Amino acid sequence: MDAEHWCCCRKYCHGQRKCLKSLRTWQRHLQEADEDEKPRVRAARLSRPFQNFVATTNDAPAAGPSLVQPPIASGSGRTHSKSPAPSSSSDDDGPSRKRRCGSGNLDVNIPPPPGSPDHDQYIPEPDFDALPENLEGRDDDEMHREPDVPPDVPPDGLDNNDIRVPDQDQRDEIPPAARWHNPLKDLDLDTLARDVNRFELQRDMQFILALHNATLNDGAGLIGDALEHLRNPPQAQARLDDSDIEHGISLFLALEHASESAFNKSRAAALHRHPEDNIPSLHQVKKIISDLSGITSIIKDQCINSCTAFVGPYTDLDSCPTCDEPRYDPIQLQRSRGRIKRPRQVFHTFPIGPQLQALWRHPDSAELMHYRNRRTQQIFEEVARNGGVPDAYDDVITGRAYLEAVQQGRIKPEDMVLMMLLDGAQLYETKQSDVWIYIWIIIDISPAHRYKKKHVIIGAVIPGPNKPKYI
To answer: What are the distances in angstroms from CA 447 to CA 66, 68, 307?
Structure first.
């Protein structure tokens, strides 16, 4: 939904509520308005969907997220309790990054006064003490984060186990604005793929169709024990009963920034002091960690010039469709008479599923990932209490896009929300070592923890030296 900028000033709009072209125009109208009409202009600034949202705040049934917990956590359901009364703020307080609301309720359905110039467009007189303060100092993105319908949320002190899931009748009473249909499901991808003419679009549609038709059993991703681990992840916390294996893993983690040679020398020194120990080698340690966590990498071939990867519709190609460079080492291919096909360049993908499953197996990381559900409940409570805005825009989940997705059921309590980032990096200062890495940020973890290195998840490593041309 595009941003709306409404005004009802006397100078330009002649007292009628009109939609302006930009926020800058609305701010000019507000600046040139008389002092006695500025509160009315601020009220008219609210969009029609926002007014409808506020009007349904007190009557709408619960439709927000619940605290349904993933594996190893207890308690699930949704709440139907009423929101607490609005809080009050002092008029002497200065501007703040938090949007605060005075006492009283915002009522946008008050009928227009007699003799209003236009009954349909005229903005009624609301309780201006309840409006957000200092709107003209807000940026455009911050002023337009408005969820459609706020749900009821649990009161302070309510245990997660006491939250109940609404019955079917209550779910059916959710206003139509909260229901959402994915328009992409109505697309005929096969027809679109046949109708495109440009090479770039044909290539894109081939990959889109490949993704649309992909399954876990197609052999393109995880296979064998790794796939079984993904389908049926262990529920218990991983434990090590072998002290030698624990020693090897501790040594591996302590030398995470060191070379393989450093690990081998440290292991050799430990075995020299205790020859009876059976400390696993570096290869064995990696295999043990992979078996315990279910995390492994998928290795695929790519063009030597980083033009593209040989996946999807390009799986069977022997040369790059962009630069025509051979996929396999031509010397090795010639010497073996075509029997040995050694790729000239490969990249590693680390599937996100096993990594998220591993986090739920430890109580500390599992507790951290309850943040989003709990904070979402609080945000909907703030929205209902403050007339449509949270106390502060301090996280991505206070944004309008996220709140609408939760309200419409596109993001469910049992889902996990991720942010993907892609950038290049040089691994060594003294030699050419450019790579491209994409990472996952787990939004379910609080901002105080999610950006720390231990909680940032590696998605893929694409070697350089050239920048990937098609990702």
So the answer is: 21, 21, 36
Question: Which tens digits make up the pLDDT trace of 326-373?
Answer: 999 999 999 998 899 999 999 999 999 999 999 998 899 999 999 999
- Yes or no: say if 102 and 130 are a contact pair by the CB < 8 Å rule: yes
Alpha helices (H) along 173-217? 189-195, 199-212
* pLDDT tens column, 41-76: 887 776 555 455 444 444 433 333 333 334 443 333
154 - beta bridge partners?
Answer: none
- Distance CA(293)–CA(404), nearest Å, equals 35
Measure the CA–CA gap between 296 and 281, rounded to whole angstroms. 18
d(CA 274, CA 268): 10
Q: How far apart are CA 125 and CA 139, in angstroms?
A: 25
The 8-class DSSP code of residue 254 comes to: H
pTM, full prediction: 0.60
Query: What is the total residue count of the chain?
Result: 471
Contact residues for 185 (Cβ-Cβ < 8 A; gap 6+): none
DSSP type of residue 328: B
Question: 45: Cβ–Cβ under 8 A, 6 or more apart, which residues?
Answer: 5, 6, 7, 26, 30, 135, 143
Tokens of 326: 């051979």
Separation of alpha carbons 420 and 398, rounded Å: 18
Question: Cα separation of 389 and 134, whole Å?
Answer: 13
Over its C-alpha atoms, the chain yields an Rg (Å, rounded) of 29
Question: Whole-angstrom Cα distance, residue 375 to residue 397?
Answer: 8
Could you tell me the two tokens for 351?
A: 């599937």
Of all residues in the chain, the percent with pLDDT exceeding 90 is 38
Q: What is the pLDDT of residues 111-155, one digit of tens each?
A: 343 344 444 433 343 343 444 444 444 444 444 444 443 444 443
Q: Are strands 434-442 and 418-426 parallel, antiparallel or unpaired?
A: antiparallel
Cis peptide before 117 (omega within 30 of 0): no
Write b or e for each residue in 254-282: b if 16 or more Cβ atoms lie within 10 A of its Cβ, otherwise e.
ebeeeeeeebeebbeebeeeeeeeebbeb
